[in-house]
Specification:
The chain is mostly helical and about 190 residues long. The protein has one domain: Orthogonal Bundle (Hypothetical protein af1432), CATH 1.10.3210.10. About 50% of the residues lie in helices and about 0% in strands. The protein contains eight helices and no strands. The radius of gyration is 19 Å and the shape is globular. The site of one fe (ii) ion has 6 residues, from α6.
Length: about 190
């Protein structure tokens, strides 16, 4: 049997009954969010950025594995796992894309680290690609400056080792379920847009 659908063509004309149908479908869709995030991480391997020694999925798993082995908490490990998930669709603002995904579910500090990591990452390679190591200095004095620098040094710039034993994506799935299964803490996410 086909799923029930609203019939309105303009949102302003929808009835309470129609929105009840939509709300039920939304709830099922939101429940699949951890699975969609996992698929996005897995899908990074098929995308570009092919010049590196490891593909982007392996890089992401290496980042999350290192964070987990270092004793970082579940929010941080999940953030490490998704930090580059925006590469395919937002190659010039990928930190912001990942941070937007994380913001409703994790602390502002972790979201900020992920949002700004592309700038801090430049410290390790920029002169080779026409940039400057000092790009991160614009944030000097920020309360989370050292945290972002630490993330890049320990869980990003060093995560291109093809011989590193990464944990599989399945290992992190319960962590994705926990973090992306939380009640979102952003008012805007309660609105249906
Ligand atoms: Fe990145
Ligand atoms: Fe990265």
């Amino acid at each position: 049997m086909a799923a029930a659908k609203a019939k309105f063509t303009r949102m302003q004309d929808g009835t309470a009954e129609e929105y009840a149908v939509i709300e039920e479908a939304d709830a099922k869709y939101f429940a699949d969010l951890p699975g969609r995030v996992a698929a996005a991480v897995a899908g990074l391997a098929k995308e570009g950025l092919g010049g590196y020694a490891v593909d982007r999925t392996q890089h992401s798993l290496q980042s999350a594995t290192r964070a987990h082995l270092a004793g970082e908490d579940v929010d941080y490990v999940v953030a490490a796992l998704v930090h580059d998930v925006g590469d395919p669709l937002a190659p010039f603002s990928h930190g912001r894309l990942a941070a937007s995904m994380l913001k409703p579910f994790v602390s502002p500090r972790i979201a900020w680290i992920i949002e700004q990591h592309p700038v801090f990452q430049m410290h390790f390679y920029a002169p080779h690609m026409g940039g400057t190591r000092d790009a991160r200095e614009r944030f000097r004095g920020h309360e989370w400056f050292e945290d972002a620098a630490y993330f890049c040094e320990h869980y990003d710039e060093n995560c291109f080792d093809p011989n590193f034993e990464t944990l599989e994506l399945e290992f992190f799935r319960p962590m994705l379920d926990e973090v992306f299964g939380r009640t979102p803490n952003f008012p805007e996410t309660a609105a249906h847009i």
